[in-house]
Amino acid sequence: MSKRALRKPFSELRVRVSWQTGLLALVVVALLAVAGHRALAWQDERQRATDEKDAAAAATAEVEGLIEVSGATSEQDLDKLLDGATAEFRTELEAQADRLRKALSKNKVTATGDVVSAGVVNLEDGRATVIVAAVGTVENDQTAEAEPRNYRLRVDLQQDDDRWLVSGLEFVA
Fold first, then answer.
1. Using CA atoms, how far apart are residues 32 and 35, in angstroms rounded to an integer?
2. Binning pLDDT at 50, 70 and 90, where does residue 22 land?
């Protein structure tokens, strides 16, 4: 056999291997791109789920704190509410805090309550809106026994580093 005859099969093999290697490399790159895209989507979804859980927990804590404000513990109760508020909302609460403390103490108010459900209805760009349903009782010096209460609230929150703080709170029907 001549040298030329031996070269021809090797050159065909080299072309075939190069073509197959190129196709394999393209498939590997495509699979890596899809895997990377899915990993980022999974990470985003996981972060969103964590944010929803944390925002709902912050709204729940703030609502429970609000519906459990009592005359005997109003100082501590209101301090907890203020701690969970953004600077702007805190200013609004502080403006009413003294008047509220006096009214709670004067009327000997005792309140209890629990959040029944909380659901995030909007979450984007570090802001969330949570709808909260709660039940409780209120007793004061004008009632013979504790009266049942039902509450529905819309709680607006803003993310501040790793905490969700209340930026607005509204009773809704």
1. 5
2. confident
Contact 155, 132 (CB under 8 A): yes
> Could you tell me if residue 71 is inside a domain?
yes
CATH for 140: 3.10.450.540
Domain extent, residue 88, equals: 51-171
Q: Is 42 helix (H, G, I), strand (E, B) or coil?
A: helix
| Nearest of 96, 111, 103 to residue 146 by alpha carbon | 111
**Residue 10: predicted pLDDT:** 55
SS3 58: helix
Q: How far apart are CA 30 and CA 26, in angstroms?
A: 6
C-alpha to C-alpha distance for 101 and 75, rounded to whole angstroms: 7
62 touches 168 (CB < 8 A): no
Tell me: the pLDDT tens digits for 117-139? 999 999 999 999 999 999 999 99
Whether residue 156 contacts residue 132, with contact meaning beta carbons closer than 8 Å, is answered with no
CA distance 134 to 132: 6
Total of domains in the chain: 1
Question: Is 16 inside any structural domain?
Answer: no
Rounded CA separation 66/80 (Å)? 9
Cβ–Cβ < 8 Å for 74, 101: yes
